[in-house]
Every structure is written in structure tokens, then in C-alpha cells.
Amino acid sequence: MAPLTLHEDPRSGNCYKIKLTAALLGLPLEVRGYDITKGETRTPEFLAKVNANGRIPVLQIGKGEGALFLPESNAACWYLAHGSALIPADRFAQADMLRWMFFEQYNHEPNIATLRFWVSIVGETNLSDDQRRALPAKRAGGDAALALMDDHLAHRAFFCGDAVTLADIALFAYTHVADEGGFTLGDYPHVTAWIARVHALPGFVPMQ
Amino acid sequence: MAPLTLHEDPRSGNCYKIKLTAALLGLPLEVRGYDITKGETRTPEFLAKVNANGRIPVLQIGKGEGALFLPESNAACWYLAHGSALIPADRFAQADMLRWMFFEQYNHEPNIATLRFWVSIVGETNLSDDQRRALPAKRAGGDAALALMDDHLAHRAFFCGDAVTLADIALFAYTHVADEGGFTLGDYPHVTAWIARVHALPGFVPMQ
């Protein structure tokens, strides 16, 4: 495989997903760091070359002129895991795994990751009025996502059954640090047990 | 293939994605309608049997006891298109297609679809104060998504190159009716030309 470089902010759970996927697969990954709170992913050079959407993570495949750039954390995980056991081969199971990855980006990340960013990185005293007003709805949305996950995990070791898939990696990234956004993981015992199972996977690496 | 049933609200672009995918592939699809503005996807029966997340669309595969239920529009499209030309086989192309589908759910749908729902279905006079305050940010986010799409389409017929993929279907659904949310599609000429190309696809069906 061509050399892989992750354009990342190490505090980002979306970036961690890609590092965890690479680690579980034993793939080497260089990293290049940016500070999103200093606008380092909105520079003209970044927008022109790495991602016109001004966001990290971006997975770079190859170096120099012919390098390919892949934004969106879950798409980058898909690229890395292509053909591996982290993506089930069965038609329904594959679609069901993607179902949880889309759920993560639509119902989970905008609530749980955003509250963590606001509370632990921006700081509550620095929030705008609009952000402060949005807190209760994001808290309720995040708790609803965690409750749905908890119910689902009551009868399964991992999101798609007995074996870990990209759905677990995508959901683990911000779930296991949800307390940094003020969520109480102890309220969700099946989620807590699943977090321990992910920690125990061979090749597991922690978030920085 | 087992019989397919789409649990839908016909006004939803997320539901239309699945109908368009099925039509382009020539797959028969039964529909069962719900009115989301009347809470019909939050009944105990719907939550227990169809989707614990209380949302449509849900693709049902099979009937009776052994039926499988698949929420999340883009995951349902993936199931239908599995093994077809709507999903490129190349490793990078496949991940790049998913990149646009995750972009759609994260950056596009929450702005462009939500504004259409608020303006054309709920009605501006019925919005809550929180919704009214969120309008400018959603307008800016939607225009940023359309501008990014327009730049990307300046050099391509479809999102992943010369041929239509699920990325086009996912992004077409709410883009082609973005004017119903107050966006001006005429400001995005490459998007407008791409909309015409999608309309011209063999098997195309319009949104209701």
C-alpha cells in the first residue's frame, strides 16, 4: 500500500477513529498535526491542497504529485479496512454496519462530540449565546443516542454481532470520552461493558 | 431478492433517495406511508418493530417473522446497490463515494433539508424561537455545502467522475428541491447542470 499520512488534530475523536482502525489492522500511519482552534485547517494552502471543506481528519494516500486526499473520518476508515474482517462481507451486515456509521455522524457526533468540544476544549465561559442556548437540546440528543446504543448492546457484544467492525470504532471514539462533555456513562451499563470490550481488542491504542 | 418495503413519508428526500436508487436499478419496492408531522413514527409499535430511533426511512427486507429492518437512508441505498455499478469497485473510489455520502449527512442535510422542512412543511410562522434563531447559521451552512459541490462539479459530470454513483443520488435528493428552503440554485451553475444530468438518467423517477 502507498504510504499513509493522517492530517489531524490529536484532540479530535474523528481523527482517533482512523488511528484506531490503522492500529487494529497493523497499518503504519504518519501523522501531521493541526490546531483547529487556531484556524490551521482554514488556510488557503490547506483548502487548496488537503480539503476544500476546511476540516480534519483527512487521510492522504501516497506522497507528492499523485497523492490522493480523503476527507470524512468514516470514509477514511472504510478505505483502510477495505477487504478486512472489520467490514463484514454479507450484504445486509455491511449495510447495517454503515447504518450505525451514518447514525454516528447524524445523531451522535453533532451532540456528544460537540458538547465535549464546547465544554472541555473551548470552555463553557467562552461559549457564544447561541451555543449556550443550544446546550439543552444537544444534551438531550446525546442522551437519546446513548440510550439507543445501550438498548442495542443489551443483546450483542458489538454493534453488528459477535465481532468488532467499523461501526464500533466509529461509535467508540466520542462515546468513551463522553464524560468530558458532561454525560454520565455510568447510566448506560451495556455501553460501559462494550467500551471495556473495545479496550481489550488486540492492537488497541488509546486516544491521546 | 426478498420483497422490499420502504417505510416512508413521501415528502422526505431521505426516503426519495431509496426510491430513486431502486428505480435506477429496476428493483420493485412497496411503500408504506407515515406522516412525520403527526408523530406516526414515534408510536410504541413503530419504535418496537420498525426503528427504535423513531425515524423514517426504514428499508424492510422480507416479510413476517424473519423480516430485517434497515434505518438510515444512505445505508439502505448501499444495500440495494450492493454489487451494482452504482457502487464503484475500486478501493479509493468506493471510499471517496462514501466521503460524499457522509458529507451529505453531516454538512448538507442538517442545513438544506432542515430549512426546506421548516420553510415549506412546518411553515415559517410556526417555527419556535430556537428554530428562528438557527435560520441564519443553517442558511450559511447550506450555501457553503452548495458552493463546495459547485466547485467539485466544475470539472466532473458526477461526484465520483464520469458515471453516476450513490453519492449523486444521496446529494441530489435535497439539492434539487433546495429552492423550497429558500436557496437560490441559479447561483450554482455546475450544480444546476448536474441536476439536469441526473434527471436524464435511464430509469429516473421524480420526487412526489
What does this structure look like?
The structure is a homodimer of 208-residue chains. Chain A has 208 residues and is of the alpha+beta class. Chain A has 2 domains: 4-81, 3-Layer(aba) Sandwich (Glutaredoxin), CATH 3.40.30.10; 91-199, Up-down Bundle (Glutathione S-transferase Yfyf (Class Pi), Chain A, domain 2). Helices cover 51% and strands 8% of the residues of chain A. The first copy, chain A, has helices at 13-25, 44-49, 73-81, 91-123, 129-153, 166-175, 189-199, and strands at 4-8, 30-33, 58-61, 68-71. In chain A, strands 2-1-3-4 form a 4-stranded mixed beta sheet, with helices on one face. In chain A, α1 (13-25) links the parallel β1 (4-8) and β2. In chain A, α1 (13-25) runs parallel beside α3 and α1 packs across α6 (166-175). Chain A is globular and about 50 Å long. Chain A starts with a strand and ends in a 9-residue tail after the last helix. The model of chain A has no long low-confidence stretch (mean pLDDT 96). Chains A and B meet through β4, α3, α4 and α5 of A and β4, α3, α4 and α5 of B.
